[in-house]
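Collaborator request, handled under Task 6.
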Amino acid sequence: MTSSRTRKAGSLFGIDLAGLFRDDDNGEQSQALNPFLQLSRTTKGRGGVLSLLPQQQTGTTATLGLGGAPGIQNINFLNNALAEQQPAQEPAQETSEPTTPELKKFEGTVGGVGIEDIGQKGFGMKDYNVAVAAGYDPESIKEYVQANRANLYNIGPEAQKTLEISDYVNTQPGMFDYSQFGGEGFGMKDVEALESRGVSEEDMTKLAQQAPKIGAEAAKRFGISRFDDFDYGAYGQAGFGMEDVKELVSRGATRGEMQRIAKDAPGGQIGGEARRILGL
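Structure tokens returned to the collaborator:
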């Protein structure tokens, strides 16, 4: 004789479903046991059914509350509906500040063309404007000009102002205007004017050595012999010639000093070769 085993409805999940709807002691169903279904969110899905089996979570959760009886816990069922598609948020676009092009370092040429071929021989505003327009750093232009000032044929007055160079003086032979300060030649008024601009002792010495004439104080200041006692008739013929040049070179005279001595020759007599060598 075989016996069949029966299970109460809901016992698989530990729930006495029959007991939920049994009359109470007064023959009335308890209102506290009225089941209810509470969906926290509904979505469109496949079939629209509740599944008691473990499912991959693809939608929303439905909560089945079984009354309010004590000891009975809510059971959460997971439906297999697809989650609502939320509109994708576009990633915030990063805004970048405009970049300033890197300026080039000036080294004396613009596109392979040297400054002596842009304007005149020296460095002037034409050279400066062309370099800046080509993307060279103005500060590097100033540094180049400052570093090469002794090698430049000249630096124009306007370029000196633009580059804030106040202590420049052209020491190239024949370029300095000795008459702009004081009288003719190179004297203490020239020294004072150049010192006020910050001109170096080295540059002032060069100017003193090249001056057609030099005052006694200036000659003493820069250690220059004036050769006031030079005897023109003691070397070669009368006047100033190549023999005088050789004698002065042996005594350490500079080109400027020889030029001054030649110009002071009796009767202004200067030989052709001596005149050529001294640039007179």
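The cover message to the collaborator said: "The first helix runs from residue 17 to 20. The longest strand covers residues 45-51. Please let us know whether this matches your experimental observations."
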